[in-house]
From TrEMBL:
Source organism of this protein record: Winogradskyella flava
One Gene Ontology term, aspect cellular component: efflux pump complex
Residue ranges of domain CusB-like beta-barrel in the record: 227-297
Pfam families named in the record: Beta-barrel_RND_2, BSH_RND
Transmembrane segment boundaries: none
Gene Ontology terms for molecular function: efflux transmembrane transporter activity
UniProt domain Multidrug resistance protein MdtA-like barrel-sandwich hybrid: residue ranges: 67-214
Protein name: HlyD family efflux transporter periplasmic adaptor subunit
Length: 375
């Protein structure tokens, strides 16, 4: 009896398992609902061809337009002046920058001037007897001869006899020897060639200065130049006097400059041409790094877009009836962030921002104020 009951229960269990498996299989065959197709919203812009100003970016550091490297042509001890010879010290034009002790050399100059005076005085009796017609002008020269002043120019000799007589006494050679010594004496005082500021000082008061030694650097802080290297393609576009907008690296200060010079040759290694931009501003300093934007040329019937909108093969995306398409374009100028394009018909709707994963034939929805919540 027990065996019969167990057989019946086993059969029922098998039947129940069969129906349960059928139920589970039928439930798994139900189709999932199709996902709703998402249409991306894109930012667009309408093409309006116009004249585009092509601006060439460049950068460089400022250098004083007028600068002097100071060197000594004589030897001596650096004497203390009215101002300390230190970087940042300002001087007026003609003011002494450096005074070198010239007391020993000054004595030799005075000795040569005295010898010249004595040589002329020695021939005066002969001039009175043999050349009475020129005696007075030489007497006037002697009367105006001052050892403490620069040696005056010799009187003009009007006849050959006078010339032979004066030259034969060695007066002309003595005169030029004195003038040569006076010229060298002037080198013991180095004066400011223009109003400016000392930017480098390599000697101090009391030090011994040697012939040919560099003493420092002196600049005019009122005008600076910036050297920029540009592609040879713009050689014919650069013009002297062209206005240039400049700014510092932080873009917190703006300056106005002008192209002052353009090099007449192209660098053979880099194929670039050098231009110099002059800029004046009281806040500028030598060595300051600036960015410049040069107006190279105007391109008519063109537009300017971001470079990241360009595709390989000089193509861009356009929107036609809410479908993306690709058209060919003619790029005429590339900058770091922008590109100037031509041959795009007016009224063409183009993307103004790149769309990740975009492809030709992709359905899109142009951005408007009413669908802004979908973005």
């Amino acid at each position: 009896m027990r065996k019969i009951i167990l057989s019946i229960l086993g059969g029922l269990l098998i039947v129940g398992a069969y129906f349960a498996s059928q139920y589970i299989a039928d439930k798994g065959d139900k189709k999932r609902p199709a996902p709703e197709k998402v249409v991306k919203t894109v930012f667009t812009d309408t093409v309006h061809n116009s004249t585009v100003q092509i601006v060439i970016p460049a950068n460089g550091s400022l250098v004083a337009k007028r600068r002097v490297e100071l060197y000594s042509e004589v030897q001596g001890v650096f004497r203390t002046g009215n101002k300390l010879f230190k970087p940042g010290q300002e001087y007026r034009q003609g003011e002494n920058l450096i005074r070198i002790d010239a007391s020993e050399y000054y004595a030799s100059v005075q000795s040569a001037k005295s010898n010249l005076y004595n040589s002329i005085a020695a021939i005066m009796p002969d001039l009175r007897l043999d050349f009475p017609e020129v005696f007075q002008k030489w007497q006037t020269y002697l009367n105006g001869f001052d050892l403490n002043k620069s040696t005056p120019k010799l009187p003009k000799m009007t006849t050959d006899k006078e010339n032979y007589f004066i030259t034969g006494r060695g007066i002309v050679s003595n005169y030029y020897n004195v003038k040569n010594l006076e010229q060298r004496l002037a080198k013991y005082n180095i004066r400011a060639p223009f109003t400016g500021i000392l930017t480098e000082a390599l000697v101090t008061e009391g030090s011994l200065i040697r012939n040919g030694q560099k003493l420092g650097e002196y600049i005019d802080p009122s005008a600076y130049e910036m050297e920029v290297a540009l592609s040879k393609a713009y050689a014919s576009l650069l013009k002297v006097g062209e206005q240039v907008a400049l700014n510092n690296l932080d873009k917190t200060q703006n300056f106005n400059g002008a192209v002052s010079r353009v090099n007449g040759s192209i660098d053979a290694t880099t194929q670039t041409i050098t231009a110099y931009i002059e800029v004046k501003d009281k806040t500028l300093k030598e060595g300051m790094y600036l960015e410049a934007n040069l107006n190279a040329k105007e391109e008519s019937d063109a537009i300017e877009i971001n470079r990241n909108l360009m595709l390989d093969g000089d193509q861009i995306f356009v929107v036609r009836d809410s479908i993306l398409d690709i058209i060919d374009v003619n790029p005429v100028y590339f900058s770091d962030a922008k590109v100037v394009l031509k041959d795009i018909p007016n009224g063409t709707i183009i993307l103004s921002k790149p769309v990740p994963g975009a492809y030709a034939g992709m359905k899109v929805k142009p951005y408007t104020a009413t669908n802004s919540k979908d973005i």
